[in-house]
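Section 5.1 Outputs to date
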Amino acid sequence: MAKKSLGQNFLFNMEIVRKIARSAGCLKEVTVLEIGPGPGGLTRALLEAGAQEVVAIEHDPRCIIALKELVDAAEGKLQIIQADALTISPQDLLPSRPIKIVANLPYNVGTQLLIRWLHCLDNIVSMTLMFQKEVALRIVAQPKTADYGRLTVLAQYLTQPTKVFDLPPGAFSPPPKVKSSIVHLVPKVLSEQDLALLPYLEKITHAAFGQRRKMIRSSLSAVLTEDQIQAANVAVTARAEELALENYIELARILKDFSTTKAD
């Protein structure tokens, strides 16, 4: 039985889990990291799809027992680790290996896990993840929409995200009260200079979207002057959701340059 406290909603429909596995692309030359395999429906689909190796992190000891037969049948291609995924870095677990993360993420920690992974994408080839639909829409949102926010800017700065397909509540046991979506994220090839911009980008978006109803000259007043905002070719009367990713990148560059100069 799924535990509400662990955010569990199990997928048993093999047609759907095979579709998720296909969405991750070729799995033959990578290690697949799965979070929360539960009873193993998606795990089976990943092995069927030809994954070279599947490493699954499972928090619930009941599921570890249920997966033992699958581990035996996988003949060395499946490893189950009992742990909280929030405490494990993919790079520490699988150093120097190309990784594809494929997971039906627990609703209660899905966004938190994604943000952690976005901050360290070394050797992650792609992420094919299931979220609540409202979270998926935030990841792929466009400017001037209600879904557009901090998560949008962070995800789209670091990756190319695509919403692949939606899943109805009836596909799960127990059926959740919300719809779900699969999102496929491919990390961008960014320079060290680009990655060094990340903390400034986060500071800018935290200020902007923390007061998203205010004009940018007001919401960013604690971090940038009006002249600095205008130097980024951003209208000071714009609001947070009206700025494109490129605008946020330029504002972050100006903040970084200003902070570096100030420190000197």
